[in-house]
Specification:
The complex is a heterodimer of chains A (337) and B (391). Chain A has two domains: 25-102 and 280-334, Periplasmic binding protein-like II (D-Maltodextrin-Binding Protein, domain 2); 104-253, Periplasmic binding protein-like II (D-Maltodextrin-Binding Protein, domain 2, 3-Layer(aba) Sandwich). Chain A contains 13 helices and eleven strands. Chain A has helices at residues 2-22, 36-49, 62-70, 85-90, 121-129, 138-143, 164-176, 178-182, 200-210, 220-225, 245-254, 292-307, 323-334; strands spanning 25-31, 53-58, 76-79, 95-110, 118-119, 155-159, 196-198, 214-219, 232-234, 240-241, 278-286. In chain A, the strands form two sheets. Chain A has an eight-stranded mixed beta sheet with strand order 2-1-3-11-4-8-6-7. Chain A is elongated. Chain B has a two-stranded antiparallel ribbon. In chain B, helix 5 packs across helix 17, helix 6 crosses helix 17 and helix 14 (282-311) packs antiparallel against helix 17 (351-383). Classes of the chains: A alpha/beta (337), B mainly alpha (391). The interface between A and B is medium-sized, with 35 and 30 residues.
């Protein structure tokens, strides 16, 4: 009986191994959770169009993605924030950042009797710093003429889990608010001067909904999918802009100098209608793949992603790369080995 | 004794095969069942060998099987030690970086920012990591949970074993066990959507008005537990230490309750009958006859509940407020060790940051061991020298 079982199991293992060998290519990647919906759509569509290619992506977070690609555990990584110079230097493989889509972060609020609000950059920073503590503060009133603001204490809600959303938001505040830059700074998790933490976009949105007088920030996609109203932010050109797919793409297009390694922050971009709290999200790809066959597949996938994949991005509320950037990225992909 | 067992024993005593170990086994059985074995030889009916005996005779030598079985079981037991050692060593090795930077102060330092004079325990951007608020949050929320859950659990167990009408006992016990089967994320969601608003709008205002009332401040102000800086001072967010403690209490309630019930129903009826016969009221009977005999088991179940409360992650992370601060008020926001690991591990790309998170894991490991050791010590102190009164 047991012998039979062993034989059967042996056969099963053999079969599994054989089928793994027969399947042409299996790529694995790991990293950011923010672009996971579009990535999984791309990967399944690409696999359907290219039989034998299987791309497996684990959305374990940017930190995990960076760690796994730098130690060579996966074929590609993904991150919402660019890698630091030290991280790049510590990597086993020489890596390049490939921007894939754009995302944005929007301020959401729950103020009694108020449905629409505008925030100028320094006011937004001072609210999250805890310097402005009441909704009827003259500085908020100045930004919102005609809006009747209640005398309500401001509750700050932030992300409790480390996230790319926090990175983008704090990157923006670091650029526009000196005290923020000298205080909390930018990162995926911060030492928040004020407020309480909710887990994930849904946690922040849930707390904002529950606590009167609260303000928080979520991804643009999350707010759009769940029909949450959000505030407008004043951009560099002086216009009040609400987060939108077009505004985000324009932000990327209006950045004058995109460096060759694409490690660039596009928050506070100069374009007239550019939404200021926007960012790229990147795939981390080895310049010279250790396994040439896999490298070839990955290169082909990246090519497909930039040429055909971009068209379906906006269905999922992501912003596509502007043409200038897409053309540049395509050239970088050709140079991969 | 059922008849089938008798059948096994009788032929053993009659067939006289020279196998010393079997005969010893047989003798012990004879002691255990004196009446049956003494009466059976008198019944001279021929008995055929039982199924078990037939199998034992046919299988050949068992020495190898016995020894390898023993070895296998030893490996199983050793694997537990192996796993613990592997976890501990991995935690120690991976937390070296933060250990070297912060030393032992990591666990107890009340770090204050030199510029702002505000306490900063956890600043991933600046690379400052101290674990004190997380330790505090884990211990205090678990303590609150125990304070709420233990009386409820023991009370419900007493009702179920001693007073409950038979008709209700089954359903009530089933519902208690059902509570234990609910995943902690579901508890967390329930806490966020139901418990927290309930606390914020109905329960906390009552607690605040009692504890912060003038009369309470006048009479009990010296304790430091009442008033604006007391147990229920500060801003009422709904979230915070109390919410975490309440949800933990709900989660550990079924564990403590069902184990306590098992222990109490294991107390022999003779104890209860004796107490009642001597003129005890029902409460006295429960106190002297049942609770006293079951106390070790009850403490054990409380320890198991505490273990779950200390390690609980998701539900706590969803309601504790996730703010690394230390405040006396139960309404204030806090943080716990497991919550910070779950929240920040996946995005921690900096080596020191990661190492600090792993060191928090190590702290949690050590705290659990210490709490368990303390609890065992407590049990030992209580039971030392007292003979077991069962039978």
């Amino acid at each position: 009986m047991i012998k039979k079982l062993v034989v059967v199991m042996g056969l099963a293992v053999g079969l599994v191994l054989a089928s793994a060998n027969a399947g042409a290519q299996k790529l694995t990647g790991a990293g950011a959770t923010f672009p996971y919906p579009i990535y999984s759509k791309w990967f399944s569509e690409y696999s359907a169009a290219h039989p034998g290619v299987e791309i497996n992506y684990q959305s374990i977070g940017s930190g995990g993605g960076i760690r796994q690609i730098t130690t060579g555990l996966v074929d590609f990584g993904a991150s919402d924030g660019p890698m630091t110079d030290e991280q790049l230097a510590a990597s086993k493989l020489k890596l390049i950042h490939i921007p894939t889509v754009l995302g944005a972060v929007v301020p959401i609020f729950n103020v009694t009797g108020v449905s629409d609000l505008r925030f100028s950059p320094d006011v937004l920073g001072d609210i999250f710093l805890g310097k402005i503590t009441s909704w009827n503060d003259p500085r908020i009133e100045k930004d919102n003429p005609g809006v009747k603001l209640p005398n309500e204490t401001i509750n700050v809600i932030h992300r409790s889990d480390g996230s790319g959303t926090t990175y983008i938001f704090s990157d923006y505040l670091t650029k526009v608010n000196k005290d923020w830059a000298n205080g909390p700074g930018k990162g995926t998790a911060l030492n928040w001067p004020k407020g309480l933490g909710g887990k994930g976009n849904e946690g922040v949105a849930g707390l904002v909904r529950q606590l009167p007088g609260s303000i928080g920030y979520v991804e643009l996609i999350y707010a759009m999918q769940n029909k949450i109203s959000f505030g407008a932010v004043k951009n560099v050109a002086g216009n009040w802009v609400k987060g939108s797919i077009e505004g985000v793409t324009e932000a990327a297009a209006s950045v004058k100098q995109i460096p060759a390694d694409y490690r660039v922050s596009i928050t506070n971009a100069p374009g007239a209608q550019a939404y200021p709290i926007s960012s790229f999200t990147w795939l981390l790809v080895p310049i010279k793949a250790p396994d040439t066959a896999k490298g070839k597949v990955l290169k082909d996938f990246l090519n497909w992603m930039i040429t055909s994949g971009q068209s379906e991005v906006s269905n999922l509320y992501y912003a596509p790369l502007p043409k200038v950037v897409a053309d540049k990225v395509l050239k970088s992909i050709y140079s991969l080995q | 004794m059922p008849g089938s067992l008798k059948k096994v024993i009788v032929p053993l005593s009659e067939t006289n095969i020279p196998r010393p170990d079997v005969s010893i086994e047989m003798r012990t059985m004879e002691v255990a069942l004196p009446e049956e074995t003494t009466t059976s030889p008198e019944q001279t009916r021929p008995v055929e060998a039982s199924v078990v005996r037939k199998y034992l005779l046919s299988r050949g030598n068992s020495a190898i099987a016995d020894k390898s079985f023993k070895a296998l079981m030893a490996i199983c037991a050793a694997s537990i030690f192996g796993i613990v050692v592997l976890i501990a060593s991995e935690l120690v090795i991976s937390s070296q970086l933060s250990w070297h930077k912060f030393g032992l102060e990591f666990f107890y330092k009340l770090n204050v920012d030199p510029d702002t004079h505000l306490p900063t325990f956890w600043d991933p951007v600046a690379g400052t990591f101290y674990a004190l608020p997380f330790l505090y949050g884990t211990l205090v929320s678990s303590l609150v949970a125990l304070v709420i859950a233990v009386p409820l659990a023991v009370g419900s167990a007493i009702f179920l074993t001693e007073m409950c009408p038979k008709l209700l006992r089954g359903p009530l016990a089933f519902v208690t066990e059902l509570l234990a089967a609910i995943p902690s994320v579901v508890y967390g969601l329930w806490a966020v959507f139901v418990l927290v608003p309930l606390l914020r709008e109905h329960i906390n205002p009552v607690l605040m008005s009692i504890f912060n009332s003038e009369i309470a401040v006048k009479t009990l102000g010296w304790t430091g537990l009442v008033g604006e800086t007391g147990l229920f001072g500060g801003v009422n967010y709904g979230l915070g230490m109390l919410a975490a403690g309440v949800i933990l209490a709900v989660m550990i309630l079924p564990i403590i309750s069902s184990l306590t019930r098992e222990v109490m129903s294991a107390v022999p009826h003779s104890q209860r009958e004796a107490a009642l016969a001597l003129g005890a009221t029902r409460w006295e009977m429960i106190r002297m006859g049942v609770l006293r005999n079951a106390r070790i088991g009850i403490v054990g179940s409380i320890i198991l509940g505490l273990g779950r409360a200390l390690g609980e992650t998701m539900a706590v992370a969803m309601v504790i407020g996730n703010r690394p601060e230390i405040s006396k008020s139960l309404l204030s926001l806090g943080h716990s060790m497991s919550a910070v690991i779950a929240n920040e591990f996946s995005e921690a790309s900096d080596n020191l940051y990661l190492s600090a998170l792993i060191e928090i894991g190590l702290a949690l490991f050590v705290v659990t061991i210490i709490v368990n050791a303390l609890a065992r010590f407590l049990v030992w102190m209580v039971t030392r020298g007292v003979p077991a009164r069962v039978n």
